[in-house]
């Protein structure tokens, strides 16, 4: 891996750290204003609605300029949403603004990997990115839980004299601190190198954009490998969003934990995902990515098993570790959540890599990630909506958890059966690893480079206003949307 990849990792870590810390702080803010319980899952729903509503345009936006610049601008939007929450905006509305930045950030974040790295390195790269992202989730929810603690929040209020700004609650103190993390992420984005990939001038016409997006969706869903990987990642992110809130409820019901302690258990799940992600990166090549599908069934079964667990059935007593007293109930619950996370990380990382690869082959990087985001976040909207209704209907936590686990297991079983039927009709696994476009869709055809163009002139020109840049050459016809690249003789070797 080259230096550019590690810069992307650093930027992603800080951005994700702030996103997850802000979620915990926003939950605390809703609690401080006595918002009803059913409103809490709506935070995530408002966050992801932009992924669905803006799906037709965020991919175009990601391909309209160097993706490092896109990541800088979108992180700044996140910071604005954070400040809006701080200074009078309703938490749901403010978190929706943060979601706008995140929706536009994602196609650039994942799309730049396909521009920077060859296909054979995508699983490893995704393992690192996913592991680091999960690490940021762990630290983010812990950071959010720490920042809302009275002693820490009060110190922030006193140190920065926030009472002069009309800020007095512990949640507001936490949000104030998180805003600086977003600004740090924006600063790191400025150091991301230009890959040298250029697309023709992008058109944001509403009708044409929607038509092109629908065409991209059909193209990816009609691909035998794309439809399987897209089904899995769609299910994973919807299930993961519900699990974020369900774990907090489960900790309260089964273990008697408060919000700050439940955030730590969320981090434990994320730790398991990180372990699973690194194992997948080390053990699963792109060619074997479809072999991990049964792990999704195991994840659902573990969640069903967790629904029966309470501290009453665990042995009394516990252990003292590093100065902390941990009961057997908490340790058993933590082990279950780690195993859930390992299963999730182990099957989602290869599926993400396969989906990115097929999207890169069939269409542009930005558009393929936008299609992925649309489907995944539509799943989040639906699943969180159903979860909110279950809470409003006063369904018990164990029953909700059981329904959730059974749904995940059955869904993964159906995906496996679909893949086997596809393979019986036609073996498409030989397409994994190809680097040229096979699609007949002329609007999206084009070949992207395996390595970045890193000349000083290219990096300088990428930041100039569009009117001052040279027009694309004949290889970049708007008719076929082909990316322009540096001449092979001048391009660096593969990372």
Describe this structure as you would to a colleague.
With 495 residues, the chain is mainly α. It has one domain (3-431): Up-down Bundle (Growth Hormone, Chain: A). Helix content is 69%, strand content 2%. It has a two-stranded antiparallel sheet. A hairpin with a 2-residue loop joins strand 1 (318-321) and strand 2. Helix 1 (3-32) runs parallel beside helix 6, helix 3 (55-63) packs across helix 5 (91-116) and helix 5 (91-116) packs antiparallel against helix 14 (365-392). It is globular. Mean pLDDT is 77; it is low at 436-495.
Summarize this structure as a short list of keywords or feature phrases.
two-stranded antiparallel ribbon, 495 residues, 16 helices, 69% helix, disordered C terminus, Growth Hormone, Chain: A, 2 strands, mainly alpha
Count of alpha/pi helices: 16
In percent, how much strand structure appears in the residues? under 5%
Number of self-contained structural domains: 1
CATH superfamily: MFS general substrate transporter like domains
Structural class: mainly alpha
Total strands: 2
CATH architecture: Up-down Bundle
The biggest sheet amounts to: 2 strands, antiparallel
- Rounded to the nearest angstrom, the radius of gyration is 23 Å
What is the end-to-end distance?
Answer: 5 Å
Share of helical residues: 55-70%
As residue ranges, the low-confidence spans are 436-495
Could you state the order of secondary-structure elements as H and E? Answer: HHHHHHHHHHHHEEHHHH
């Amino acid at each position: 891996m080259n230096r550019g990849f590690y810069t992307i990792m650093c930027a992603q870590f800080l951005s994700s750290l702030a996103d997850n810390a802000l979620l915990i702080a926003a939950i605390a803010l809703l609690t401080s204003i006595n918002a009803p319980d059913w409103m809490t899952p709506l935070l995530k729903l408002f966050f992801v609605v932009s992924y669905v509503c803006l799906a037709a345009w965020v991919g175009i936006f990601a391909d309209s300029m160097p993706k490092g610049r896109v990541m800088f601008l979108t992180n700044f939007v996140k910071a604005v949403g954070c400040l809006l929450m701080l200074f009078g905006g309703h938490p749901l509305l403010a978190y929706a603004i943060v979601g706008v930045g995140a929706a536009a950030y994602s196609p650039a974040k994942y799309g730049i990997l396909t521009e920077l790295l060859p296909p054979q390195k995508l699983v490893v790269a995704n393992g690192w990115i996913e592991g680091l992202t999960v690490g940021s989730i762990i630290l983010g929810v812990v950071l959010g839980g720490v920042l809302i603690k009275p002693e820490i929040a009060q110190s922030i209020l006193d140190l920065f004299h926030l009472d002069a700004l009309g800020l007095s609650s512990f949640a507001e103190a936490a949000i104030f601190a998180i805003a600086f993390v977003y600004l740090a992420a924006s600063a790191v984005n400025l150091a991301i190198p230009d890959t040298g990939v250029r697309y023709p001038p992008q058109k944001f016409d509403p009708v044409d954009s929607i038509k092109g997006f629908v065409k991209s969706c059909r193209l990816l869903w009609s691909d035998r490998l794309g439809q399987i990987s897209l089904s899995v990642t769609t299910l994973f992110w919807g299930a993961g969003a519900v699990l974020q809130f369900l774990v907090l409820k489960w900790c309260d019901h089964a273990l008697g934990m408060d919000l700050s302690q439940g955030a730590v258990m969320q981090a434990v799940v994320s730790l398991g995902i990180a372990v699973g992600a690194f194992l997948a990166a080390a053990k699963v090549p792109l060619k074997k990515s479809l072999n991990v599908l049964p792990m999704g069934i195991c994840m659902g079964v573990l969640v069903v098993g967790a629904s029966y667990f309470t501290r009453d059935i665990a042995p009394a007593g516990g252990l003292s570790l590093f100065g902390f007293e941990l009961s057997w109930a908490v340790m058993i619950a933590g082990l279950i959540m780690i195993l859930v996370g390992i299963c999730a990380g182990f099957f989602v990382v290869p599926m993400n890599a396969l989906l990115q690869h097929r999207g890169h082959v069939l269409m542009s990087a930005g558009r393929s990630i936008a299609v992925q985001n649309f489907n995944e976040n539509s799943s989040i909207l639906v699943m969180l909506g159903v979860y909110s209704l279950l809470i409003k209907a006063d369904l018990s936590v164990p029953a909700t958890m059981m329904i959730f686990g059974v749904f995940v297991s059955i869904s993964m079983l159906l995906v496996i059966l679909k893949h086997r039927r596809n393979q019986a009709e036609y073996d498409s696994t030989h397409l994994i690893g190809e680097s040229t476009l096979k699609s007949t869709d002329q609007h999206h055809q084009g070949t992207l480079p395996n390595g970045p163009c890193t000349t000083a002139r290219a990096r300088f020109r990428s930041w100039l206003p569009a009117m001052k840049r040279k027009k694309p050459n004949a290889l970049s016809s708007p008719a076929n949307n082909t990316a322009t690249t540096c001449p092979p003789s001048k391009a660096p070797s593969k990372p």
